[in-house]
Amino acid sequence: MLDKNGIAKRIAQEVEDGYYVNLGIGIPTLVANYVRDDISVEFQSENGILGMGPFPFDGEEDADLINAGKQTITALPGASFFDSVTSFAMIRGKHVDLTILGAMEVSENGDIANWKIPGKMVKGMGGAMDLVASAENIIVAMMHTNRAGESKLLKKCSLPLTGVGCVKKIVTNLAVLEVTNKGFLLLERAPGVTVEEIIEATEGALLVNGDVPEMKNV
């Protein structure tokens, strides 16, 4: 199965030349490290930057240059900085081609829960609600199961929802799945993972059509 970097590396294969991409906190922030060098991509963060680069090397961090998750980042040549009004105008105006988010749960019809666990303190929704309401292409990066081994790909989310029917594709440590009107369609397996293991780890409806290939270049 994949680790967090493996998930990010697989999602980076979904990024196309000329894309404007928003990266959520957690695993999605790692995607910028694995995008191909021969394509031009603009990474956007809702706290007001367009043109994010990879994470800085140790000792080269700039405490004033951070992403929405308050992690230090780098800025590529030509990057721009702006206020939240402009940043969310980009998001709400559908000027972002791909949104990559983490999630606590995803339902078989594409609902996402990624902002709150009842009874636990949270800092707030952040930009997640605007992103899921406006984005037309959302990929979720997540672990397939929780620490107790329980599925996070469910028939119905149990946590408060961030968005309804908005997720298009999911990349987990076990698989790549597409959300369809009949449930999760299994597209690829992580290296060394069997279809049977993925079925066992998925509570929601899972569609398996023929031979399922392993992920490549992860």
Strand order of the largest sheet: 4-3-2-1-5-8-10-11-12-13
Distance between the termini: 10 Å
Strand content: 15-25%
Structurally, the number of domains stands at 1
Class per helix and strand makeup: alpha/beta
Characterization of the model:
By secondary structure, the chain is α/β, with parallel strands linked by helices. It has one domain: 3-Layer(aba) Sandwich (Glutaconate Coenzyme A-transferase), CATH 3.40.1080.10. 14% of the residues lie in helices and 24% in strands. It is built from four helices and 13 strands. It has a ten-stranded mixed sheet with strand order 4-3-2-1-5-8-10-11-12-13. A three-stranded mixed sheet has the order 7-6-9, with no helix packed on it. Strand 6 (105-107) and strand 7 (112-113) form a beta hairpin. 41% of the residues are buried. The mean pLDDT is 93. It holds the Pfam family CoA_trans. This is 3-oxoacid CoA-transferase subunit B. Belongs to the 3-oxoacid CoA-transferase subunit B family. GO terms for molecular function: CoA-transferase activity. Keywords: Transferase.
